[in-house]
């Protein structure tokens, strides 16, 4: 049976109660966030920039990138209102520079060419239409902007066992893309200079990065208005 957005939303709604306390924060999410911050800092240096975090959950990465790089303006988007609501205190504390938005990765509610970086950490395997999601991420990036996706590295035997066996058994028919598949997705969406880095460990993960060409054709306006503010 194929995996759809309703299944993803139902799963993350249940997970929202324990998300900030789960062991994956230590095993996978924390290391992933540090890898993203190192890469963004290497590119942006001390310049101000705008970043969209797709699948932002309760806003942990948003808070970490603001702490590491105060010059950042962060927008977090998530499909599941319960996830956003669980991060309400975090959003309120960061309200001057971080905006939470409810929305779908396949229909990002932002104008084309809005962001310098788009990040997506450990949620991409839940996206039913991964091609469409990458195309949308490319659309909202400025010329020269960068997409940074982190997801479980399933190409080796250990990663295959963790992600294609254990995670699939636990979460349903999710799809962890191979490194080759990520290169294909980014290339088909028009990204250049696609680079990848494997981070080893108990929960290995892959960072895939692509750059938007400096000259790109105009793309239609967003699909719907931004809805920000999170109810408790």
Q: Can you walk me through this structure?
A:
- The protein has eight helices and seven strands; from the N terminus they run H-H-E-H-E-H-H-E-E-H-E-H-H-E-E.
- With 232 residues, the protein is an alpha/beta fold.
- The chain has a single domain (5-211), classed as Rossmann fold.
- The protein has a seven-stranded mixed sheet with strand order 3-2-1-4-5-7-6, sandwiched between helices.
- The longest helix is centred in the N-terminal third of the chain and has 21 residues, at 24-44.
Topology (SSEs and partners):
Blueprint: H1 5-15, H2 24-44, E1 49-54, H3 60-68, E2 72-78, H4 81-86, H5 88-93, E3 98-102, E4 115-121, H6 130-139, E5 141-152, H7 157-171, H8 179-188, E6 192-199, E7 205-211
Parallel strand pairs: 1-2, 1-4, 2-3, 4-5
Antiparallel strand pairs: 5-7, 6-7
List keywords for this structure.
Demethylmenaquinone methyltransferase, methyltransferase, alpha/beta, 232 residues, 38% helix, seven-stranded mixed sheet, transferase, SAM-dependent_MTases_sf, Methyltransf_25
Mean pLDDT: 88
Q: Number of DSSP helices?
A: 8
Distance between the termini: 34 Å
So, CATH architecture?
Answer: 3-Layer(aba) Sandwich
Work out the number of β strands: 7
Question: In CATH's first tier, which class applies?
Answer: Alpha Beta
| Number of spatially distinct domains | 1
Approximately what portion of the residues adopt beta-strand conformation? 15-25%
Question: Which fold name corresponds to the CATH topology?
Answer: Rossmann fold
Sequence stretches where pLDDT stays below 50 over 5 or more residues: none
Lateral strand order in the biggest sheet: 3-2-1-4-5-7-6
The main pleated sheet reads as:
7 strands, mixed
Rg (CA only): 16 Å
Helix fraction by DSSP (H/I, runs of at least 4): 25-40%
Structural class: alpha/beta
The CATH superfamily label reads Vaccinia Virus protein VP39
Keywords: Methyltransferase, Transferase
GO molecular function: demethylmenaquinone methyltransferase activity
Organism: Aquisphaera giovannonii
EC number: 2.1.1.163
């Amino acid at each position: 049976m194929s995996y759809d957005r309703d299944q993803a939303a139902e799963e993350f709604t249940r997970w929202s109660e324990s998300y900030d306390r789960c062991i994956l924060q230590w095993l996978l999410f924390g290391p992933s966030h540090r890898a993203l911050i190192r890469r963004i800092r290497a590119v942006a240096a001390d310049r101000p920039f705008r970043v969209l975090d797709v699948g932002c959950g309760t806003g942990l990465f948003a808070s970490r990138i603001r702490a590491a790089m105060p010059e950042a303006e962060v927008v977090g988007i998530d499909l599941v209102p319960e996830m956003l609501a669980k991060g309400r205190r975090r959003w309120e504390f960061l309200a001057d520079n971080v905006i939470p938005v409810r929305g779908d990765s396949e229909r990002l509610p932002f104008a084309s060419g809005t962001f310098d970086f788009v990040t997506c950490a450990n949620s991409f395997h839940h996206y039913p239409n991964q091609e469409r999601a990458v195309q949308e991420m490319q659309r909202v990036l400025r010329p020269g902007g960068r997409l940074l996706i982190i997801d479980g590295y399933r190409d080796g035997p250990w990663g295959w066992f963790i992600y294609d066996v254990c995670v699939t058994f636990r979460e349903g028919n999710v799809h962890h893309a191979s490194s080759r598949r990520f290169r294909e997705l980014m290339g088909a969406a028009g990204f250049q200079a696609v680079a990848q880095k494997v981070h080893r460990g108990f929960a290995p993960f892959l960072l895939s990065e692509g750059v938007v060409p400096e000259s790109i054709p105009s793309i239609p306006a967003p699909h719907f208005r931004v809805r920000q503010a999170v109810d408790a």
